[in-house]
Write a structure and sequence with these properties.
Blueprint: H1 2-25, E1 39-42, E2 49-54, H2 57-67, E3 80-85, E4 92-94, E5 98-100, H3 104-110, E6 117-122, E7 130-133, E8 136-140, H4 146-157, E9 191-194, E10 196-201, H5 218-231, E11 249-258, E12 261-271, E13 282-288, E14 292-297, E15 301-308, E16 311-318, E17 323-328, E18 333-339, E19 345-350, E20 359-360
Parallel strand pairs: 2-3, 2-6, 6-8
Antiparallel strand pairs: 1-3, 4-5, 7-8, 7-15, 9-10, 11-12, 11-17, 13-14, 13-18, 15-16, 18-19, 19-20
């Protein structure tokens, strides 16, 4: 009898261990809505800029702490919230050169947290470039931490590379100029070579030129500060509870840029938080019964960067990739219109048809 009890106890113990291992492997916890567990790292209020890291807690703390040591972020600590999801989504190697984590999976997982800007940390050989596309930074963990600052400069303030990489840089970028007078006296230096060989940069070796630097330079800092100011109102700011993304919904729009036009491939209503795009020369306008909401985004260019001695090596590619917009479901939402840099409407979606078959015009 004692032998039988021992066998039964052993079986139950083994089963409990296996069941516990299965539960612990589900990291992070997946809610009934399909969202992941959003972990709050640093919270300064509902009107702050939300940065989401796909990383474990130790890595997320390492990158967020580093972010706050660099100007102008050190002087604007209350302008940012940091969240993390302890999960590593699938990414691809773009053109066999760079990590690219722009995918439907990443957007759907990111909706678990407030997410204006998303950084996915991946370990790859150091020769594999990090990248920036839309509001997603795909960071190679084997690059210096300053790669986070470099790619954030691209997605947040529309900064162009300050090393010579191509003849293309984002329209509307202001850090590469045709003559030094355009720096308005805020430049540290005036050096030739800023994405293109015939443009000038405001600092000899700044963050947008080399990962060995931890200084954007005065002029680039002013551009970032201007962008921070467009997001955040510091007057009467009160810290409130973070938004619960399980109580939110957003339109997930899948599209591609072809010959200047935006072809909408699919659209659906998903649970979670929308992104808050605010950089680029393309724009979308959400039309409701009573108002309009317009935001800027950049579906044109994929920035890829890796360390190469004192400078950086990389390339700017005109995107042929599918991109995603995660836009809020507003009361009375009727349609979304997408405009190119000239103001021409190059894509439209009627929201009444989302959930059935998108009406594409």
């Amino acid at each position: 009898m004692k032998k039988e009890l021992l066998i039964i106890s052993t079986v139950f113990l083994a089963a409990a261990i296996v069941f516990s291992a299965i539960l612990s492997s589900k990291t992070p916890y997946e809610s009934p809505s399909g969202l992941k567990e959003c972990r709050n790292l640093i919270y300064n209020g509902a009107d702050s800029i939300n940065i989401l890291l796909f990383a474990d807690k130790k890595t997320a703390e390492k990158y967020s702490d580093y972010f706050y040591t660099i100007e102008p972020f050190a002087n604007n600590k209350d302008a940012f919230n940091f969240y993390y999801i302890d999960y590593s989504p699938e990414c691809k190697i773009y053109r066999e050169k760079a990590i690219l984590c722009n995918s439907e999976e990443v957007l759907k997982l990111a909706a678990s947290c407030p997410n204006d800007y998303i950084a996915v940390l991946r370990k790859e050989p150091s020769t594999i470039r990090s990248s920036a596309f839309m509001n997603i930074m795909s960071l190679n963990y084997n690059h210096p931490k300053s790669v986070f600052l470099h790619e954030f400069g691209h997605v947040f303030a529309n900064l162009a590379d300050e090393y010579i990489t191509s003849r293309s840089f984002p329209r509307g970028s202001e850090n590469c100029v045709v003559d030094c007078g355009k720096f308005n006296g805020l430049n540290d230096d005036c050096e030739k070579g800023c994405t293109r060989g015939d443009y000038f940069r405001s600092i000899n070796n700044g963050i947008m030129r080399t990962l060995s630097s931890e200084d954007y330079g005065n002029f680039d800092e002013s551009l970032i500060q201007k962008k921070i100011n467009t997001y955040v109102s510091f007057t009467g700011k009160a810290i409130t509870e973070p938004r619960v993304c399980e109580e939110q919904e957003y339109y997930l729009i899948k599209a591609v840029l072809k010959d200047g036009n935006v072809e909408i491939l699919d659209a659906s209503i998903e649970p979670g938080c929308a992104s808050n795009y605010n950089s680029g020369d393309y724009s979308y306008t959400i039309i409701t019964q009573d108002s309009k909401l317009t935001k800027n985004f950049n579906p044109e260019f994929i920035f890829t960067d890796e360390p190469d001695g004192i400078q950086m090596c990389g390339g700017v590619y005109e995107s042929d990739e599918v991109f995603y917009l995660a836009v809020p479901v507003l009361d009375g939402s009727r349609a979304i219109e997408i405009e190119d840099p000239s103001g021409k409407i190059v894509g439209k979606l009627n929201f009444d048809d989302v959930g059935n078959r998108p009406c594409i015009k």
